[in-house]
Amino acid sequence: MKKNAIKYTKKGNMLKIAANVISGIISHAKKEAPLEACGYLAAREGVIVQQYKMKNMDASEIHYSLDPEEQFEALKDMRAKGFELAAVYHSHPATVARPSKEDIRLAYDPDLSYIIVSLANGSETLKSFKIRNKQVEPQKIEIVHKPPQYTKI
Fold this sequence. Notes:
This protein is an alpha/beta fold. It has helices at residues 19-32, 68-81, 101-106; strands at 7-8, 14-18, 38-44, 47-54, 84-92, 113-118, 125-132, 135-144.
């Protein structure tokens, strides 16, 4: 294998995500295209139930940077609702849904899932990955149509 080649592990794990969140991610990606869209996803009881759209501070078609103020507000809201940060998502408006070398380099938390939605060739493809020590592990996605409900505390 080449020195800088992306390495994939063979075993994947499961990401559970509410159907409406998937729709929201795709909608956000389409709205921001040709720029990359980005944001956080929050979970309750092991299911991603909330999307936090964020501004791409880089305003770029090939990379993104989350707005620190929006990150802080999202985390504050998650705590208030009893959610946990479960994933970071972004779009690839013109390329496939797999982590780029830069995505892998910037994957800072091995416990998070990294979701990429591709809009390449006029189709919508959403994939999820775990990235640990520069190793990319694809995740299976289970779409949940009746996610756990929550109430504000």
